Amino acid sequence: MNFCTQCSAKVTLRIPEGDGRPRFVCDSCGAIHYENPKMVVGTLPVMDDTILLCRRAIEPRRNMWTLPAGWLENGETLSDCAVRETLEEAWAQVADLQPYVLVNLPFINQLYFIYRARLINDDFHSGSESLEVKLFSPAEIPWDELAFSAISETLKWYCKDLEKAAFPFRVVDIGI
Amino acid sequence: MNFCTQCSAKVTLRIPEGDGRPRFVCDSCGAIHYENPKMVVGTLPVMDDTILLCRRAIEPRRNMWTLPAGWLENGETLSDCAVRETLEEAWAQVADLQPYVLVNLPFINQLYFIYRARLINDDFHSGSESLEVKLFSPAEIPWDELAFSAISETLKWYCKDLEKAAFPFRVVDIGI
Ligand SMILES: [Zn+2]
Ligand SMILES: [Zn+2]
């Protein structure tokens, strides 16, 4: 960040009075520009004993496999976002959303919120952001070709939970 | 938002190519400025059958009661943030954090994530953002003087859950 969004003057990275952290401060108009973690929301769509994964058509991690997920937008609830992303990336319709894993990625200022969801039918296909959409049994999960650590972590928990047939909600920290 | 953070040119609110939502776009350098919901994280600190609440010393909602909570900062996990805010606002030490309620407030682009937590001792007192910090039994909760709907919602669920002595994690949508 170089310039103030309010008045276009140059900003300085410094700790404002009464604050404990450096912020981009505008000495011209006084505006303080806060930056906060952003949230990625998605689903782990399940049909019988298989899981739907998408092979990414876009960077980062083009060609790697992921769960359908994307940025939470202003004006949207978590479940709205999860359903929308699943539709956009896999043209897949899901129901019975259950909060499943929240992954903290503090080193990149991201959070992933993943719902377990029931895939309503197998009438899915790749959206513009996916090269391929496919169902995998737990044994078939391409662990070495997963796009993001938050996705590996979610799938790892899912495979463990499957054995006990219990899927408690969890907060997981990565990389700290 | 008026000016580009990268080059200081005036921004325009329009839908970028390949996107579905209006963004602040810079036609001079091409930067797209995304805005996403922000997360407030806090605790519901419990000691025996009482709940710790703070009376706000600052706007908005000065003088109203709230749970200790604040903005999730870059570089921070949810539990780090919850513990820090509880310390800053109530000088209270908590342990045994359990994910409890996630409140969606899409009309103001906010999310509240509240942990249930055990108050370690009664050696708490107001921080610079609180006028007063006090323990309330469920019957004493000042429902008409609570600062935010996300806090009322969390406390309402807590009182219901107390009756069954079961505290499942929930995602709650407000105002949609
Ligand atoms: Zn300025
Ligand atoms: Zn620009």
Automatic annotation (TrEMBL), chains A, B:
Classification via Gene3D superfamilies: 2.20.70.10, Nucleoside Triphosphate Pyrophosphohydrolase (3.90.79.10)
Taxonomy, superkingdom: Bacteria
Domain called Nudix hydrolase: residue spans: 36-159
Protein name: ADP-ribose pyrophosphatase YjhB (NUDIX family)
Species annotation: Desulfoprunum benzoelyticum
